[in-house]
Amino acid sequence: MTLRPYHPDDAPALPALFRDSVRRVNARDYSPEQIAVWASDDIDLGRWAGRFDGRFAVVAEESGRPVGFAELEPDGHIDRVYVSADYQRRGAGRELLGAILAEARRVGIARLFVEAGITARPFFEAQGFSILERQVASCRGTELVNYLMARSVVQPHAAADTDYVAYCASGLALNRPDPLRICPTRGSSFVE
Ligand SMILES: CC(C)(COP(=O)(O)OP(=O)(O)OC[C@H]1O[C@@H](n2cnc3c(N)ncnc32)[C@H](O)[C@@H]1OP(=O)(O)O)[C@@H](O)C(=O)NCCC(=O)NCCS
């Protein structure tokens, strides 16, 4: 498996990977109705691809085919992270997150945060993220549980420190003035 930057030519393959991953992996933890809205057939593909613009986006590929992708916004928010349903637990997620961490260090982002779904929560915990808050996001009128999670970039696994978590929860530590007011309404990967 190799990592490379996202390219607009990836636009046709990544939505298919995304839908398949949600339908086969996240279906473990969400109802059929929730999965149907999250991985809807009606996703606006132009808008979905347009969200990569201006973001650091990295693709994992095997034998020339994408098996996962991840993206980082300039404020430290990790938006979409998806690994192919046929490529789970083979280290692709860890590699993608490693690329995000390296980019965050390169551009001077101090902290990363993510709205992790139920399925991805143990993955992010294993990568040093701690839960700040359980949230209920709305996706086209359907509610989905996720977890606002964060970790420090500079100190590996420092987010497990309870003082740090309390500091983040106070709304002071993330890269935005009031992250807990902004993040719960963003919806993250649940929004097309
Ligand atoms: C979450 C996701 C990106 C992880 O990608 P992955 O390539 O399967 O993860 P990795 O193989 O790199 O796992 C790294 C470590 O994370 C932890 N981990 C990953 N998945 C886990 C799970 N389901 N349960 C417990 N721990 C898990 C383990 O410690 C694992 O190391 P190990 O396999 O040596 O034990 C992937 O499962 C996925 O695409 N899920 C569906 C889409 C999704 O939920 N995306 C996030 C949206 S918020």
- Second CATH tier, the architecture: 3-Layer(aba) Sandwich
- The CATH topology assignment is Aminopeptidase
Strand order of the largest sheet: 1-2-3-4-5-7-6
Assembly level: single chain
Average of pLDDT:
86
Give the % helix: 25-40%
Count of runs of 4 or more consecutive helical residues: 7
CATH class: Alpha Beta
Task: Describe, in plain words, how this protein is organized in 3D.
By secondary structure, the chain is α+β, with helices and mostly antiparallel strands. It is 31% helix and 28% strand. It contains 7 helices and 7 strands; from the N terminus they run βαααβββαβαββαα. It has a 7-stranded mixed β-sheet with strand order 1-2-3-4-5-7-6. A hairpin with a 2-residue loop joins strand 2 (56-62) and strand 3 (65-72). The chain is globular, with a radius of gyration of 16 Å.
Question: Notable features of this structure?
Answer:
192 residues, seven-stranded mixed beta sheet, alpha+beta, binds coenzyme A, Aminopeptidase, 7 helices, 31% helix, 7 strands
What's the gist of this structure?
The protein has helices at residues 13-24, 32-38, 45-50, 92-107, 121-126, 162-169, 179-182; strands at residues 2-5, 56-62, 65-72, 77-83, 111-117, 130-139, 142-152.
Strands, helices and their partners?
Elements (H helix, E strand, L loop, with lengths): L1 E4 L7 H12 L7 H7 L6 H6 L5 E7 L2 E8 L4 E7 L8 H16 L3 E7 L3 H6 L3 E10 L2 E11 L9 H8 L9 H4 L10
